[in-house]
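INFO  loader      accepted 1 record
INFO  loader      residues=295
INFO  predictor   begin
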Amino acid sequence: LFLPNPALIMKRYLPLLVLLIAMQYGNAQPAHLSFEHLTIKEGLPDNNINDIAQDNQGYIWISTYNGVVRYDGYHVKVYKPGMEDKSNVPTYAFSLILQDKNHDLWPNSLNNGLFKYDRSTDRFVQYKNKSLHNKGFQLSGAIDSTGKIWSVVFKSGFRLASLQQFDPATGVFENYGNDQKGTHHINIKQLNDFYTDHQGKIWISTGNGFYRYNPSSDSFTGYLNSADTLKQKNIFTIYQATSTPGKLWVAVENKKDKHRYLLRMDILSGKTEEFKHNPADKTSLGNDTVNTAFE
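INFO  predictor   done
INFO  writer      dumping tokens
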């Protein structure tokens, strides 16, 4: 049974939306923090908040398990995208809200695909990937440097993960995964994380190494992959620091002995450097288990 990376899930699934208001009472006194709660009592359709985004007009958009919410600081407006289409799964759970370079909002439904907010009509337009519609849960995604929208789709109760790519310019979906053929085939039976680097490139970490998407060939290039299951490496997270362009920090676990460590890889040369905890060195890693990285 595949369990998604906790960091990937926890940052999106919060039990309650809390708006923080900081109030300063003079320079000599510490700041007093008070919390204003926005819940079902104030108009939310559900107290489970999955994502929050702010558009270029200042509105706060909230995805919940029972619709999408627009909040102007005073009033709540609830939308139920896809409600009119009887072919949809009768649920209005949304995972995340993406915003493109044109400031268009793209809420990602858990069950019913991708939606785009049309400001002129104050309605949501639905885009269906027919091959995956009603067949999985969409939990995460990103927009790459070309404006294409990527989503991770988990099927069969999280046992199988695939990727879908949507091009807003053409309205065409493309699928990538273990069940695809040709250049769209990648070994992602276990998908741990989904990362967009500073150049807008798409990376995925899996139970057998990690992969980078190549727009020119419409395919994925694999790193640290192996056909031998005993030599495969479980990659938990990927990070590119601004101070080291061309190098990736990768959290690794060897499947054979379950040993974990931090790896730095030069993408151009393929050279790697391992970092591990050394009890005799106080400047080494505090622990070999690394869940995320940040600079």
